[in-house]
Specification:
The chain is mainly alpha-helical. The chain has helices at residues 2-6, 9-23, 25-45, 65-75, 89-97, 111-116, 132-160, 165-172, 189-219, 223-229, 234-263, 272-297, 300-317, 329-334, 339-353, 361-376, 381-386, and strands at residues 54-60, 80-86, 103-107, 124-127. Strands 2-1-3-4 form a four-stranded mixed beta sheet, sandwiched between helices.
Length: 394
Amino acid sequence: MIKRIYNSAFFNVIKRELYRISQNKVLLFVALIAPIITYLLIMWMFSEGVVRNVPVSVVDLDNTNLSRNIIRQIEATPVAKITYHNASLKEAKSLMNKGLVDAIVVIPNKTEKEIISGHSSPVSVYLNNTNVVKGGVLKAGLYKTLSTVSAGIKVQTYLKKGFNQNQALAKAVPIQINTHLLFNPFTNYSYFLTLGLLPLMAVVFIFLGTIYALGLELKEGTAKELFDTAEQSVTVAIIGKLIPYTFLFFINVMVMNVILFIVLGTPLQGNLLSIIISEILLIIAYQLLAVLFLNITYNMRLSLSLGTAYTMMALTFSGLTFPNMAMPLVAKIFSWIFPYTFWLKILLGQSLRNAPLIEIVPYLLVLFVFIFLGTLSINGMKSKLTNSKYWGKN
C-alpha cells in the first residue's frame, strides 16, 4: 500500500520537483535562502526599535539662563540631538533645506524678560515632516519637553506667590492626562514596521517564487514532461509541483516568526497557533494566485512584473501605513484584492491586541475565498502544459 502511494503520479511529481530544486540553485535560493536574508537585513535595519538622536538646530536669540535651560532639556530628550547652534533662523533653514537637520527650535529675544514680567513668550518649532513617523515622534518629544519647561516656570511663579508645592502644581497643570498605551506601550518603531514588512517580504517571495518555478516549465518547454509525470492530470501536476515549495515557504515563515516574537521581542498577546494556521492559508492563497497569473498571461516574465507590483501594493492598501477608514471608497474596495490585507488583521489582532479568536474567523474565510479562486484557475493550465505554442516564452 505504502509502495503504491509512493509510486503514484502525485508523489512522482513531488520527487521530480525535489530533483529540479536540487539541480537549480535559483529555485532553492528564491524559496528559502533569499527570504531569510531579507528578514535578517530588515531586523538589523530596525534593531534600534525607536527613533532616537534626530538632528535638531537651536537658534538662541535670548542667550539667558532660561534659554540655556530650555536647550539642556531638549538635549536630554532621547529623540532629539542638537547638532547645530545657529545665529539666525535663515541659517538654520538653510541646514534643513540641505537635509542636515529635521527640526529648528527658535528661542526669541527677551524670552526670559517677558516671562519674568508675567507675559508669555512663544518658542517656535519648525519641523521637517516629509517622513511622517519620524516627524510625529520628534514633534511629540519636543512639545513634551517645552511643555514641561513651561509648567516648571508656572510652578515657580505660584510658589513665589505663596502657594505650596501641591497647590502650585495644580494651578500650573489644572488638567492632568493619564495616558495608557495598551498595545505598543514603548512606542516601538520596530513593532510597527517589522510586523508589516517581514510578512510582506514573505508574500513577495511566495508569489514570485511560485511564478518562477511554474513559469520555468513553460519557458524551458518541460511542461509536457510535468504533465506526463502527473499521468495527464493537471490537478496532480500543479498541486504536486507546488507542495515542495509550500514546505520551504512554511520554513521561512517560521523563521520570520522566530525573528518577530523571540529575537525582536514583538509582543505575542494572543494565540500563536491561530497565527500559524493563517500563515499556512496565506502561503497557499498566494501560490494559487500565482497559478492564476500564469494562467492569464502564460508568460513568466510578464507574470513576474505584474506580480511584483501586485505584492508590493499590498502594503500600501493594507491599512498599516494609512488607515483603511480614511481611504476613499474605491481604495477600500481595491484593498480587498490582496490576501495580505486580511491576513495582517489576524497578525496584528493576535500579536499586539489579544483579540478574541472569533474575530479572526471572517478573515480566515476570506483567505479560503482566495484559495478557492486560485483553485479555479488550475484547470485552465492544462492547455498551457500540453500546447507547445505556450512554451519557450520569457
